[in-house]
Specification:
By secondary structure, the protein is mainly α. Helices cover 82% and strands 0% of the residues.
Amino acid sequence: MRFAFFIYLVLIWNTTFSQEKEKDIKKWEFELTHYTSDEIKNPESKKHIAWKLLALDGLNRKAVNYLVEMYGRLRQKDSIHKLFRYLIENNPGSPEPYLLITSEGNAYWAGLGYDERIAYLKKGYETNPKHTKTLYRLGELYYKKFLDDYKR
């Protein structure tokens, strides 16, 4: 009887904790997408929110996009590459960080050309060759590079 009661308490605690975590994630995502005039001048307060969001959800797209754009606007390209290394190191064996890195907005702010983006996606493909999004994105970038070279 005690064992069943203990299991019941653990399940309730786990459910409650996961619901609180989801609430925090939603709240912080909302904070990152809404600006006031003071926050545009001083993005440091939002940067802490984005890092908290990454601590809870390691591949949160809104947090990564916010940080990359903020560092890009502040011309801190080295910080963007440190963020990319952080994502890759904290998600080994997953191609998702490589997909985030090579998305259009993030590649623009990081100053990545076709060759760098293709190199990142090849690493992502090596981590999981069965991941179809990585393969599709790699083919798409090769095609865009071909078209740009052809136009020249």
